[in-house]
């Protein structure tokens, strides 16, 4: 039960040996049992693992048929936090790691898409003591399959970095004297999945979407007997489009603030109206591209496949409506049939972010200023 006074009961998984009751998985989150009398968890041939209430009604089931070849089936909770239904020969029939609720644990393979169809989503609790489906969820953006996003209902709430050579390759998220957290996103066959691991001897680590809409990475501290936040989004100005059109959220300083992209200035007294061009850009008039480094590229891009860097640049430069482009090679080892990732933008650029590292180049189209040296621009614009 989430609280001592709550009449609702749930089948859940939580940490056994820390003082703070922390639930990481709930089976019947939208169908609680209101009485503990005769509540039963069992295994049936027709439905696998099954949870029944005091009237014998099915509250939750894994819906796996158990065949004659699965003799000796049992259910076991592993020390990883994975609840597994398995046969006597060790074959996994069902596991909770394949059905996360609001939390990801180390080693859990979070399948984001299968055959280019979005399948995985974390759904936050409705409240701190209510595990039913809440308003916020995390999953792959179905419009592109290239980025994780947080939704507030059906409204885009926050984006993470678009898939590029850095996010595909993975790397340490945070390291200190006691642990390293390593995360990666990988394509294997028809699956695209996210997974993270921690070094041996690390404290407990979990990743979750909470009921306020924040995606958090938390680490357990024995000294304070509490969870420490080691990373979270959104914060400051990285809520979706919070810096307006042609603005970006600057994470390079101590204080995270909105700024205008190069060649733009604030349109009004604050960023509610975004930024405007200093020099108007018109079709047929001289223009050039500037490379803006270490960015999370804007939203609302068009993904063009099977393009080299030069071809991607040409796609944008030949279209006077194109305002920017970005390019990445997602694989150098042949993992992808098409490792190119050419993105182009037309119209306004929204929800851009700047970092101190781990970003990528955005090539922004600007109008030439009077007296600008075109020879210097030609040399500059040709550099990837």
Question: What features would you describe in this structure?
Answer:
Involved in sporophytic self-incompatibility system (the inability of flowering plants to achieve self-fertilization). InterPro entries: Bulb-type_lectin_dom, Bulb-type_lectin_dom_sf, Pan_app, S_locus_glycoprot_dom, SLSG/EP1. Pfam families: B_lectin, PAN_2, S_locus_glycop. It comes from Aegilops tauschii subsp. strangulata. GO terms for molecular function: protein serine/threonine kinase activity. The chain is mainly beta. The protein folds into 3 domains: 1-94, Agglutinin, subunit A; 100-234, Agglutinin, subunit A (Orthogonal Prism); 238-367, no CATH class. The chain has 3 helices and 31 strands. Strands 23-22-30-26-31-28-29-27 form an 8-stranded mixed β-sheet, with helices on one face. Strand 4 and strand 5 (58-61) form a beta hairpin. The protein is elongated, with a radius of gyration of 25 Å. The relative contact order is 0.10. The model is unreliable at 375-384 (pLDDT under 50).
Q: List the domain count as a whole number.
A: 3
Broad shape = elongated
With strands numbered from the N-terminus, the spatial order across the biggest sheet is 23-22-30-26-31-28-29-27
Terminal-residue CA separation: 57 Å
CATH overall fold name of the largest domain: Agglutinin, subunit A
DSSP strand count: 31
Low-confidence stretches: 375-384
Strand content is 35-45%
Structural class: mainly beta
What composes the largest sheet? Answer: 8 strands, mixed
What's the gyration radius in Å?
A: 25 Å
Q: How many helices in DSSP terms?
A: 3
CATH structural class of the largest domain: Mainly Beta
- Please bin the fraction of helical residues: under 10%
The CATH architecture of the largest domain can be given as Orthogonal Prism
Look at the structure and give the mean pLDDT. Answer: 88
């Amino acid at each position: 039960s989430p609280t001592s006074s709550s009449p609702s009961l749930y089948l859940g998984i939580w940490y056994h040996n820390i003082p703070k009751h922390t639930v990481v998985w709930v089976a019947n989150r939208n169908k609680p049992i209101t009485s503990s009398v005769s509540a039963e968890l069992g295994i049936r041939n027709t439905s696998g693992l099954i949870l029944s209430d005091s009237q014998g009604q099915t509250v939750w089931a894994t819906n796996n048929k158990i065949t004659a070849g699965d003799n000796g089936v049992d259910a076991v909770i592993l020390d990883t936090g994975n609840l597994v239904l398995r046969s006597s020969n060790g074959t996994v029939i069902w596991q909770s790691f394949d059905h996360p609720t609001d939390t990801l644990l180390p080693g859990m393979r979070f399948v984001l898409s299968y055959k280019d169809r979005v399948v995985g989503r974390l759904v936050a609790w409705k409240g701190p003591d209510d595990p039913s489906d809440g308003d916020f969820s995390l999953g792959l953006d179905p419009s592109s399959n290239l980025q994780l996003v947080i939704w507030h209902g059906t409204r885009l709430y926050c984006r993470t970095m678009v898939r590029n050579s850095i996010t595909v390759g993975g790397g340490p998220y945070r390291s200190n004297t006691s642990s390293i957290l390593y995360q990666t996103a990988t394509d294997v066959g028809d699956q695209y999945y996210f997974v993270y691991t921690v070094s041996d001897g690390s404290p407990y680590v979990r990743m979750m979407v909470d009921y306020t809409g924040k995606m958090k990475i938390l680490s357990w501290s024995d000294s304070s007997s509490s969870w420490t936040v080691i990373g979270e989004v959104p914060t400051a100005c990285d809520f979706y489009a919070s810096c307006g059109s042609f603005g970006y959220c600057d994470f390079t300083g101590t204080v995270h603030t909105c700024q205008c992209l190069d060649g733009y200035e604030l349109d009004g007294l604050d960023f509610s109206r975004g930024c405007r061009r200093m020099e108007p850009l018109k079709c047929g008039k001289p223009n050039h591209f500037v490379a803006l480094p270490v960015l999370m590229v804007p939203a609302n891009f068009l993904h063009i496949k099977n393009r080299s860097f030069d071809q991607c640049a040409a796609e944008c430069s030949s279209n006077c409506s194109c305002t920017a482009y970005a390019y990445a090679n997602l694989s150098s080892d042949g993992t992808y049939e098409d490792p190119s990732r050419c993105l182009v933008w037309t119209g306004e650029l929204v929800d851009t972010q700047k970092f101190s590292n781990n970003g990528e180049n955005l090539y922004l189209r600007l109008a030439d200023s009077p007296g600008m040296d075109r020879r210097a621009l030609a040399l500059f614009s040709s550099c990837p």
